[in-house]
Specification:
By secondary structure, chain A is an alpha+beta fold. Chain A folds into three domains: 30 residues, no CATH class; 95 residues, Alpha-Beta Plaits; 65 residues, Alpha-Beta Plaits, CATH 3.30.70. Helices cover 20% and strands 15% of the residues of chain A. The longest helix of chain A has 13 residues. By secondary structure, chain B is mainly alpha-helical. Chain B has two domains: 47 residues, no CATH class; 265 residues, no CATH class. In chain B, 68% of the residues lie in helices and 0% in strands. The two termini of chain B are 31 Å apart. The relative contact order of chain B is 0.12. Chain C has a single domain, classed as Cytochrome-c3 Hydrogenase, chain B. Chain C is built from 16 helices and eight strands. In chain C, the strands form three sheets. In chain C, strands 1-2-3 form a three-stranded antiparallel beta sheet, with no helix packed on it. A three-stranded antiparallel beta sheet of chain C has the order 6-7-8. In chain C, strand 6 and strand 7 form a beta hairpin. Chain C is globular. Classes of the chains: A alpha+beta, B mainly alpha, C alpha+beta.
């Protein structure tokens, strides 16, 4: 059928001859009978628990047979379902929790960190989650991804909360992962320092999840004439831009607000 | 051996049961329980039980049939998980409804609220007592079975309106009034269409009407009457082009809005009982009942119980037609429905009476005798 | 007699109440009551990042999520002074038009069911499912897409998508013929719908009615033509109108709109095949790229002064003309967001187009309005 029938022109729409009722109700009866004949052998229904849309065998065999244009197998992997978390590569950057619009992600301590800096991984409450995918888009390490699993029913409300370990099990079950990596703008801002305000407290370098902040000695300012040289060795954070995941932890822990976002140039 | 009828079967069952009972009892009591009057009485009960079981089983099967058929029209599958191909789904549904609490609104009228579904169910079941399914179904045929069936059939609006009014709900009331108006309006064309059949067959007895169709089925000469009858039956059964009393889009569920649980199941069952009756009547009056034209090979028509089997096949095909109509047509409006009934159906029915008279007259003329016959 | 049709009633398709005063079966007066589904989306939006608001947009109108995403994102881009790349614009238009088809199919399904016919409901839902499959294949979700971002879209369409999409569009075009046969080809349908719910052009304009309801009254107004946004001035399509102003007219307009949407989609697909490129703008304020900074608004205001601005956009949504107004005060959250819902206004005109008809006419008339209460109450 052509995509531009004659009646798409500018004069007002009229019911064309084929759309006029003829012989009372014969035409709809005939249409229904045609569909009946078509679906006599196999209706379009996907018998869900037994046939699944994501099942490639089903899609290639039955989808074509029933006349439904389902095809292209790998597209299903885009589905945003239950999260999978690779605990090993998680750097505890908090970005998933920060990016969650529903505040359903909480960072909980998992074994494996040192006592001073416990390792924290996301715990997701699926009672609140809206599956927007912002968390997995935000994850700089690609360790929090979304899988094609969509069956979530549980008996208790508490079971809706997926601990990091549980999401690690999902990860280990090797489900297809959402392959989409979100494009990030080329000229992302970077962390910048306002040097006169810095007191060299080490808070930023201590809390940086990627250890991209190193405290370096700053060259002492030449004392003004008549002043004593400062006794203390001043240190200042230097940020390795290529390692920085732009989580902003350093900004939020800075007691003097001397770190800020600035353009990279 | 006398031809086996359903009643003779019931009689034999009753006699056997009582004979068994008589052996267990002392001689005097045994003589009392095997007296012919007692046997006859029990035979009547057994007969009624068989009828009840058959009609209910068929009704439930009919619901399954509609669900499956409608599913195919709609490109889906219908019930399919409980039992083979979902055959037991309706029993499961019935069980669920049975377990539900029946809630009566506080402001509803108690007597009318309870009485209406019961009476509706009873009258719908009652019709089966007079419908002959096959040659040996009813023992002695009444002279006016057709009229009796239609009279019982037309009790329904009374009870529907009663229940609707009693449940004290605006939707129910509107639905009940629509139902009453519609059923009364469509009684007339139905009866007129039936008159055409009566003219052609010369009898009000359903068995005679069927036997008259030995040579040719009445649908051919009485095609107009068939259309009127089917349309009228659709309205009487409140099926989809004419289901405005329970138009769920505007009236929630129409006259049975307030009914839940088993009472709703009663209405639902009675609706399908009436649908079954409607299909059976169409088969009896127009499609030759259990008879076949003579050119059909006798091997197909003379195996044991062939009459019942072919009758049920025809009935289900007719009901399939109703389902087809339901799958393809939207609902009409009240005023359109009534206008259709009074202004179109009644004249058509009258015309069909004239046609029937012409056919009867033509029978006298040997030249025209073969025109309307399909199996003559 | 007053009848409450709603808040839970098969006619409502959502959660609202239509109070009807009837004499016998004839409607004398109606009074729509809204507010049963109010979720405070405008207020919640003030506490979210710009991109996070789109999760609300999908839930604002759950049958036309893409159109509402586009609406808000366009207003935000205007307020934030961001320009998306061309490929993103084409993807957006493609999404919006697919959404229009999906929404109209949903309307078709619900509307014909209001007439008592179940079959088209299943046909419509079956074919809408194919469009949802398409959405899922490139956004990752079937109804709540979260696809658009300020400055572009989340991701590009995957490999093989355009061919798949063309296949589905061909299939749909063939199905539209069936729909017409089931509805327009039926005498009962025509008897039910002709001269029903008439809302003539002057009244429609006076009430602010928009969308297919307005076009069915003979007013050739379509924002995609009159105030072309995005790349609608780059694609060819016609604006269908009828002058019957009744339910049949709305049916015709919507059916033709679907065909026109197929036309637009095909042009977009051709363009997308020819022009690869980025789908997200380069120069974005920091918080707009993923991930988001965990820094409070005050901190931003202290450190950086981002440009402030106002944004207003109107979109020809499947139900009518939707508007969004966004105030950007330089922070990471919008200062104020206001939406204009087309359905709310179309419903309020019910006082004009319902009285005089019968109770049985309410479902088809309200069905032809295409009510989506989610956006109505927000």
């Amino acid at each position: 059928m052509a995509d531009s029938p004659a009646r798409t022109g500018s004069p007002p729409l009229e019911t064309t001859e084929t759309e006029r009722p003829s012989l009372w109700v014969v035409r709809p009866l005939a249409t229904a009978a045609k569909q009946f004949a078509k679906s006599l052998w196999r209706p379009s229904t996907i018998v869900y628990p037994f046939e699944r849309l994501e099942d490639p065998k089903f899609r290639s065999a039955v989808g074509v047979e029933s006349g439904r244009p389902i095809g292209v197998g790998e597209i299903w992997d885009n589905y945003r379902g239950v999260h999978a978390l690779n605990i090993q590569t998680c750097i505890s950057c908090n970005l998933c929790a920060f990016s969650c619009p529903d505040v359903c992600i909480e960072m909980v301590t998992v074994p494996g960190g040192d006592p001073k800096h416990p390792k924290k991984c996301p715990e997701i409450d699926y009672g609140k989650c809206s599956f927007c995918g912002f968390c997995s888009d935000a994850c700089p390490e690609g360790c929090l991804t979304m899988t094609t699993r969509y069956e979530l029913s549980v008996h208790k409300r508490a079971d809706m909360v997926y601990s990091p370990q549980k999401m690690y099990e999902v990860f280990q079950s090797k489900l297809p992962m959402n392959p989409i990596r979100v494009a990030r703008p080329e000229n992302e801002d970077a962390i910048r320092l306002d040097p006169p305000l810095c007191i060299g407290c080490f808070a930023c370098s201590r809390d940086c999840p990627t250890n991209c902040i190193t405290m370096v000695d700053i060259p002492k300012a030449t004392p003004k004439p008549g002043e004593k040289p400062a006794k203390r060795i001043w240190k200042e954070p230097v940020i390795n831009d290529s390692d920085c995941v732009r989580c902003g932890t350093c900004i939020s822990v800075c007691p003097k607000d001397c770190l800020f976002w600035g353009s990279r140039e | 051996m006398a031809p086996m009828t359903l009643f003779s079967v019931a009689d034999a069952i009753a006699a056997a049961l009582l004979g068994l009972l008589g052996r267990l009892l002392p001689a005097g009591a045994a003589h009392a329980v095997t007296a012919p009057d007692v046997v006859l009485g029990l035979a009547t009960v057994v007969f009624a039980a068989i009828l009840l079981a058959a009609s209910m089983l068929n009704t439930i099967l009919l619901i399954w049939y509609e669900r499956k058929l409608l599913g195919r029209f709609m490109d889906r599958r219908g019930a399919m998980h409980v039992g083979f191909a979902g055959l037991l789904q309706n029993f499961a549904d019935g069980l669920k409804l049975f377990r539900k609490d029946t809630v009566r609104p506080r402001e509803a009228d108690s007597l009318g609220f309870w009485a209406s579904p019961t009476a509706y169910m009873i009258t719908s079941l009652l019709i089966f007592g007079v419908l002959p399914i096959s040659t040996g179904w009813n023992d002695g045929s009444l002279p006016l079975t057709l009229l009796l069936a239609l009279v019982i059939f037309s009790f329904a609006p009374l009870f529907i309106f009663l229940g609707a009014w009693a449940s004290n709900n605006k939707y129910s009331l509107i639905g009940g009034m629509r139902s009453a108006a519609q059923m009364i309006a469509y009684e007339v064309p139905i009866l007129l269409a039936v008159v055409a059949v009566v003219v052609l067959s010369g009898s009000f007895d359903l068995t005679t009407i069927v036997n008259e169709q030995r040579n040719y089925w009445f649908w051919a000469p009485l095609f107009l009457a068939l259309i009127v009858f089917v349309a009228g039956m659709l309205a009487e059964m409140e099926r989809i082009p004419f289901d405005l009393p329970e138009a769920e889009a505007e009236l929630v569920e129409g006259w049975n809005t307030e009914y839940g649980g088993m009472l709703f199941a009663f209405f639902m069952l009675a609706d399908y009982l009436r649908a079954l009756v409607g299909s059976i009547l169409v088969v009896l009056l127009f499609l030759g009942g259990w008879t076949w034209p003579s050119y059909v090979p006798s091997a197909l028509t003379s195996f044991p119980l062939a009459g019942i089997v072919w009758f049920m096949v025809k009935t289900y095909l007719v009901f399939g037609l109703f389902v087809w109509v339901r799958a393809a047509l939207p609902r009409v409006r009240t005023d359109q429905l009534l206008r259709l009934g009074w202004m179109r159906m009644v004249p058509l029915a009258l015309l069909s009476i004239v046609l029937a008279a012409v056919v009867v007259a033509a029978r006298c003329l040997p030249v025209l005798g073969c025109i309307p016959s399909i199996g003559g | 007699m007053w009848i409450n049709m709603g808040p839970q009633h098969p006619m409502t398709h959502g959660l609202w109440n239509l109070r009807v005063r009837v004499e016998g079966e004839v409607i004398r007066d109606v009074e729509p009551e809204m507010g049963f589904l109010h979720r405070g989306i405008e207020k919640i939006s003030e506490n979210r990042h710009y991109n996070e608001v789109i999760t609300l947009m999908d839930r604002c109108c759950y049958v036309a999520g893409m159109s509402w995403e586009q609406l808000f994102i366009q207003a935000s881009e205007q307020a934030l002074k961001v320009t998306p790349p061309a490929r993103a614009e084409y993807l957006r238009v493609l999404s919006a038009e697919l959404q229009r088809i999906a929404s109209h199919l949903m309307w078709y399904a619900a509307f014909v069911q209001d007439l008592g016919l179940m079959t088209p409901f299943l046909y419509g839902m079956r074919d809408r499912d194919l469009v949802l499959d398409l959405f899922q294949s490139y956004t990752g979700a079937r109804m709540t897409y979260e696809y658009m971002r300020v400055g572009g879209v989340r991701n590009d369409a995957p490999h093989g998508f355009t061919d798949q999409c063309r296949k589905v569009l061909d299939w749909l075009l063939a199905r539209f013929v069936e729909y017409d046969q089931l509805c327009l080809g039926s005498t009962i349908f025509r008897k039910r719908c002709d001269d029903l719910g008439v809302l003539k052009a002057p009244e429609a304009v006076a009430y602010g009615v928009t969308g297919p309801m307005l076009r069915s009254a003979g007013v050739r107004r379509d924002l995609r033509k009159d105030r072309p946004y995005s790349v609608y001035d780059q694609v060819e399509f016609d604006v269908p109108v009828t002058d019957t102003a009744d339910v049949t007219g709305r049916y015709l307009v919507r059916m033709e709109e679907m065909r026109q949407s197929v036309r637009i989609c095909r042009q977009c697909l051709d363009w997308l095949d020819r022009n690869p490129g980025p789908v997200l703008a380069d120069h974005l304020p920091r918080w707009l790229g993923a991930p988001y900074a965990p820094v409070g608004r005050e901190a931003y205001l202290l450190k950086r002064n981002y440009p402030t601005g106002l944004g207003f956009s109107m979109v020809e949504e499947p139900h009518g003309e939707a508007g969004a107004y966004v105030v950007n005060d330089g922070g990471e959250h919008p200062y104020r967001v206001k939406f204009r819902s087309p359905v709310l206004i179309n419903i309020w005109a019910a006082k004009r187009y319902l009285p005089g008809y019968r109770i049985a006419d309410i479902p088809p008339i309200m069905g032809s309005v295409d009510v989506c209460v989610g956006e109505c109450d927000r």
